[in-house]
Design a protein that fits this description.
Layout: E1 2-14, E2 21-29, E3 34-38, E4 42-44, E5 55-68, E6 76-84, E7 90-99, E8 105-116, H1 121-130, H2 140-144, E9 153-168
Antiparallel strand pairs: 1-5, 1-9, 2-4, 2-6, 3-5, 6-7, 8-9
Length: 178
């Protein structure tokens, strides 16, 4: 069987408007032919306050090892960035999804995030005075994108991911990488 080993870290979040602590919940999603042999496909970083560059540095380690029978369903990373205020309240301030590169080696990815916004004046006034944000009820919209065109969204900051991809035995399945 072919093997994919993902090593690296969720480095930081940058250029988010929120001036409080941010944390990130993440999930690796794959197709049905992929099996995890070590590591955890989901997790959460610690919360971090922004520094002088408006970056929240997490340096959260990632170590996951898959085996597969083919490349269909190549892993995707789904992130959900949340804000944590001084009262301990938490709400989502950004969603994103990115496919991992298919070439082995070192990769640095900037994953741009977006957030749903209120469509009515009442929703925007409520959000302004009470805080928080609009949240998705169906998380499949993040990675499938089937109904995402119906959402009104705005761009947020980005999450930086540094990973090393190690591929083994993919040539047996006709996959060539250079």
């Amino acid at each position: 069987m072919a093997e994919l080993h993902i090593l690296g870290q969720l480095q930081c979040a940058s250029n988010f408007e929120e001036s409080t602590s941010l944390l990130c919940r993440y999930t690796f999603q794959t197709g049905p032919n992929w099996t995890i042999i070590s590591g955890c496909p989901e997790g959460q970083t610690t919360s971090a306050d922004p520094d002088h560059n408006k970056s929240n540095i997490w340096a959260h380690p990632i170590d996951i090892h898959y085996i597969t029978k083919g490349i269909q369903g190549w892993p995707k990373l789904i992130v959900q960035v949340s804000c944590l205020d001084l009262l301990g309240r938490s709400w989502v301030v950004g969603y994103s999804c990115c496919s991992l590169p298919v070439a082995p080696g070192h990769h640095t990815l900037q994953v741009p995030c977006w957030e749903p916004v209120g469509t009515t004046l009442t929703e925007r006034i409520r959000q302004y005075f009470l805080g928080g944000s609009h949240q998705l009820l169906q998380k499949d919209i993040i990675n499938l994108g089937t109904d995402r065109f119906k959402l009104k969204t705005k761009s947020k900051g980005s999450v930086k991911l540094q990973i090393e991809l190690i591929l083994r035995n993919f040539t047996q399945f006709g996959v060539e990488y250079k």
